[in-house]
Write a structure and sequence with these properties.
Layout: E1 2-6, H1 17-26, E2 31-34, H2 43-53, E3 56-65, E4 71-76, H3 83-109, H4 116-122, H5 130-139, H6 146-154, H7 169-178, E5 182-185, H8 195-206, E6 210-217, H9 222-235, E7 238-242, H10 266-278
Parallel strand pairs: 1-2, 2-3, 5-6, 6-7
Antiparallel strand pairs: 3-4, 4-5
Helix pairs in contact: 1-2, 4-5, 5-6
């Protein structure tokens, strides 16, 4: 099995990069990508642990783009020492802090007694995410689970959501390419674009260097998966696949298996490697 969409404590996952790699190995995976939100801080540790455990680790990142809904761009085979990318990520993290402050204020206006200091204490790194607010809300008894916090308050379209982002979708693609990587649009269904609009969106990004889309994903229905994979084929894009594993923050998602029945073929990663050599 492979899983090309996972998160560690360096964004909104519950495991350290080393723990994540060890868990992947113990779960029977042959390869995984650590794709933390707007951060490469855990990749070096994951790569080192992968060598120790005998499991392939793909250096990756998940960048958030400006959007009326949610647009995330996955970057694979990233040069984690690329100076341009690292410098840009400093700005991205500053905007992320501003976004979390906005979320905190919205929650307080809704009547929840939460502070940025409390959220920072729960986070194990300096990268704050919505999951940390969700965890705090569980701790204080406002909700019973992280999922409930997202469903009621923190997800796109809910009252405490903030869509503030640092980069446009085209900037995300170009930045990934400049760092030697390959750009893929993640979880297409969350863009909430009608089919024709989604197709035009992908055509526009392909002109800027987009390599592919996430063709396998935990929340896709069989119909979505077939439609997206056919669309990729039609547009000359390749596919990636992953579960969006977050550990204890989303305990219903298993690494490599998603909701329990997911199977991402090894050929997905093989095709990505072939394409990466070509570019």
């Amino acid at each position: 099995m492979i899983d090309l969409h996972t998160h560690s404590i360096y964004s909104d996952g519950s495991m350290t990069p080393a723990e994540l790699v060890a868990h992947a190995k113990a779960s029977g995976l042959s390869a995984l990508a650590l794709s933390d939100h707007d951060s490469l801080s855990g990749v070096a540790q994951a790569l080192e642990e992968g060598k120790k455990r005998g499991i392939e680790v793909i250096p990756a990142i998940e960048l958030s783009a400006e959007s009326d809904t949610e647009t995330h761009i996955l970057g694979y085979f990233i040069d984690i020492e690329n100076e341009l990318l690292l410098e840009k990520l400093k700005y991205v993290r500053q905007v992320r802090i501003e976004r979390e402050e906005e979320i905190c204020e919205k929650l307080r206006q809704l009547g929840f007694d939460v502070t940025m200091h409390e959220v920072e204490e729960l986070a194990e790194t300096d990268v704050l995410c919505r999951a940390h607010f969700a965890k705090l809300m569980v701790k204080k008894g406002y909700v019973e689970s992280v999922k409930e916090a997202f469903d009621k308050y923190l997800a796109n379209g809910r009252p405490a959501y903030s869509g503030r982002q640092a980069l446009t979708d085209e900037e995300c693609v170009e930045l990934i390419n400049q760092a030697g990587g390959m750009a893929f649009v993640a979880h297409l269904h969350l863009t909430r674009k009608p089919y024709d609009e989604l197709k035009s969106f992908l055509i526009r990004l392909k002109a800027k260097g987009l390599c592919g889309i996430e063709g396998y994903y935990t929340e896709y229905t069989p119909e979505m998966q077939n439609q997206y994979q056919q669309l990729a084929d039609e547009l000359g894009l390749i596919i990636s696949g992953g579960t969006d594993f977050h550990g204890a923050f989303k305990p219903h998602i298993s690494i490599g298996r998603g909701l329990g029945n997911m199977e991402i073929p090894d050929s997905v990663l093989k095709n990505m490697k072939i394409k990466h050599k070509e570019i």
